[in-house]
């Protein structure tokens, strides 16, 4: 039987692991395909994913040598996470990545103001060229500077501190000063300045002058001070440039639902290869099982939005995001935070018409085959077609198959109902925690925690039922095989007129206990045989020892190994005998009135076993029930099966 308690625990562990996933490896024929796969696994939009290419793909030549792209992906850090990481790095001694530094030549600037001519020299970067005194002198001359202090120029060039120093004077001409004009555009969201160059003797514009002119034109917000500082060193004349920019209002993001399961619009997870490198197409994971109390989705609340401002200081209102209702469907509820959707039951999570639901019943429209893959479901499974060869269905509830079951495995904690028949051809098993109902069973292995009810017949099968096995119908026949039930085996006809077909009907003992008992007895027999072999080998070595007075080193080692193995087997034998004794006491202590009944006839060749008494049927008996009295099997008048066996499951009759 499937241990669904362990399965639930496994799923909860997987759920916790999925929440902890930060990195996934994916591949695809294209980079976009691999990235889409990563987005599915991380349950994030592609824009929120960072990735590294671990192996480049390629189309090959005419399909030969084609390689998939392989990438490693992880969620993009949110802004606050980035700040936190930066803060942590700033306060640790760990090494940080060194930015790439490129070579850059030094530079020289001349600025004329009311106090005189000013020189600024910028130092080079890395292997860049330094500014020479000659270059500085030529720059001063180009601006009409006179009375130059050349020693001071040399000092400024050598130190290259990047600050302006007064090194000379010039003939002042006020009418030739540089001037600036301001225009506010784009609905007060931009302020443009246009500089006119100074003429001979005119001064350059100062940073403070630009700021004052902007303020005179009501520009008080979004001024690009760093840009203006650099711009005045390398001004562009007669060309409008942006000196200030407003901040547009940002409307709040609407609330949305973050799904913690794959929705129908998301790509299915890829099929993985097995250990042998083969892909098992039966394992395609079409059902999304969830367990009770599992989070399924979470509402991300709306954002208020960010107020904007114009360059003139005006405020631009922002609209808050719209809220939404949480789409609750069947068998789900809201958690304590009133934002998380939580499952009420074990089952299949679904998104139907926008509603999140957990369904206790999973319906397969058609056959269980390569299209559906194997099925594991924490609820009831209904299959409208057949279960084909090589597939399995496992359910925590019931399994109902409208068609037939072929060479397949079925396991359910509840009932298993097969409307047609089970024909396993000695491959595959059907195990039910409760009862198994079928039209017929042929060459199959069946185990039921309660009853096995069949309408037509059981042929050459191994059938175990904790209570009873009943064939009740017009063609209700048991032919061949080994049937075991604690209380009763009942059919219209038991046995076959064809010689060589052995039919064994065993009652009066719990089949599970009897099966375990038989397994222990068989294991005990294997151990006894191994002990006999060890004794013979030990006797042979002992004879050698008596003849030679000593053993060669390899024989000495062999003797020690035999003695150790003998001790191990004796301990194992003791443990098995204790288990056999416990089961024997249990079997003897259970007072079950086992019976084997045939409403029409039971044929010669049938072996009837009640508890530990065996009766080989040699004659044909009609309308007969076999019971155990005083340690003897007696033939009595036929007894009808109990009412429980006649009713069958809801919606299914045994007739």
Describe the fold and architecture.
The chain is of the alpha/beta class and 655 residues long. Among the domains are: 24-86, no CATH class; 107-168, no CATH class; 174-245, no CATH class; 515-589. Helices cover 24% and strands 32% of the residues. It contains ten helices and 40 strands. The protein has a 20-stranded mixed β-sheet that branches. The chain has a four-stranded antiparallel β-sheet with strand order 11-13-18-17, with no helix packed on it. A three-stranded antiparallel β-sheet has the order 1-3-2, covered by helices on one side. Helix 8 (511-548) packs antiparallel against helix 9.
Gap between N and C termini: 29 Å
Helix content: 10-25%
Mean pLDDT: 85
Percent of residues in beta strands: 25-35%
């Amino acid at each position: 039987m499937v241990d669904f308690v362990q399965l639930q625990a496994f799923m909860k562990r997987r759920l916790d692991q999925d929440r902890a996933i930060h990195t996934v490896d994916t591949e695809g024929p294209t980079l976009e395909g691999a990235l889409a796969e990563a987005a599915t696994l991380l349950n994030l939009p592609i824009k929120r994913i960072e990735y590294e290419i671990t192996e480049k793909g390629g189309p090959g030549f005419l399909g030969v040598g084609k390689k998939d792209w392989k990438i490693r992906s992880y969620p993009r850090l949110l802004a606050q996470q980035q700040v936190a990481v930066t803060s942590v790095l700033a306060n640790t001694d760990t090494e940080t990545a060194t930015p790439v530094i490129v070579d850059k030549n030094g530079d020289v600037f001349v600025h004329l103001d009311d106090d005189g001519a000013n020189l600024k020299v910028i130092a080079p970067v890395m292997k860049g060229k330094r500014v020479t005194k000659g270059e500085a002198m030529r720059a001063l001359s180009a601006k009409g500077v006179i009375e130059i202090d050349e020693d001071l120029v040399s000092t400024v060039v050598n130190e290259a501190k990047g600050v302006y120093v007064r090194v000379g004077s010039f003939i002042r001409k006020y009418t030739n000063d540089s001037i600036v004009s301001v225009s506010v555009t784009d609905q007060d969201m931009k302020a443009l300045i246009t500089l006119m160059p100074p003429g001979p003797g005119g001064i350059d514009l100062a940073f403070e002058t630009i700021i004052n002119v902007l303020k005179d034109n009501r520009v008080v917000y979004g001024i690009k001070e760093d840009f203006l500082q650099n711009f005045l060193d390398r001004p562009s004349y007669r060309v409008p440039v942006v000196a200030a920019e407003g901040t547009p209002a940002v409307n709040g993001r609407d609330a949305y639902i973050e799904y913690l399961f794959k929705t129908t619009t998301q790509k299915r997870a890829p099929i993985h290869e097995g250990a042998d490198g083969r892909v098992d197409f039966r394992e395609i994971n079409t059902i999304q099982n969830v367990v009770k109390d599992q989070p399924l989705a979470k509402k991300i609340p709306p954002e208020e939005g960010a107020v904007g401002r114009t360059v003139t200081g005006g405020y631009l209102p922002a609209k808050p995001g719209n809220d939404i209702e949480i789409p609750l469907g069947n068998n789900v509820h809201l958690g304590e935070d009133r934002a998380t959707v939580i499952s009420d039951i074990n089952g299949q999570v679904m998104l139907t018409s926008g509603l999140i639901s957990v369904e206790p019943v999973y319906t397969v429209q058609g056959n269980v085959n390569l299209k559906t893959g194997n099925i594991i479901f924490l609820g009831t499974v209904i299959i409208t077609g057949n279960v084909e060869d090589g597939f399995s269905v496992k359910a925590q509830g019931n399994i109902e198959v409208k068609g037939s079951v072929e060479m397949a495995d079925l396991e359910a904690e509840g009932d298993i109902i097969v409307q047609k028949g089970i024909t396993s051809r000695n491959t595959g098993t059907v195990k039910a925690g409760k009862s198994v109902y079928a039209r017929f069973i042929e060459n199959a292995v069946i185990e039921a925690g309660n009853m096995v009810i069949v309408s037509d017949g059981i042929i050459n099968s191994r059938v175990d039922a904790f209570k009873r096995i009943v064939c009740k119908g017009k063609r209700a026949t048991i032919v061949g095989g080994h049937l075991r039930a604690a209380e009763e085996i009942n059919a219209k006809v038991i046995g076959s007129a064809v010689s060589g077909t052995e039919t064994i009907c065993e009652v009066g003992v719990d089949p599970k206990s009897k099966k375990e008992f038989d397994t222990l007895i068989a294991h005990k027999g294997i151990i006894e045989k191994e002990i006999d072999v060890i004794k013979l080998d030990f006797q042979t070595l002992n004879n050698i020892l008596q003849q030679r007075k000593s053993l060669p080193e390899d024989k000495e080692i062999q003797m020690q190994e035999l003695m150790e193995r003998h001790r191990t087997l004796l301990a194992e034998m003791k443990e098995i005998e204790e288990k056999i004794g416990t089961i024997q006491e249990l079997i003897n202590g259970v007072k079950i009135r086992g019976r084997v009944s045939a409403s029409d006839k039971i044929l010669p060749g049938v072996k009837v076993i009640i508890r530990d008494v065996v009766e080989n049927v040699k004659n044909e008996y009609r309308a007969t029930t076999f019971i155990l009295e005083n340690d003897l099997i007696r033939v009595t008048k036929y007894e009808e099966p109990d009412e429980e066996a006649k009713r069958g499951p809801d919606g299914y009759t045994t007739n």
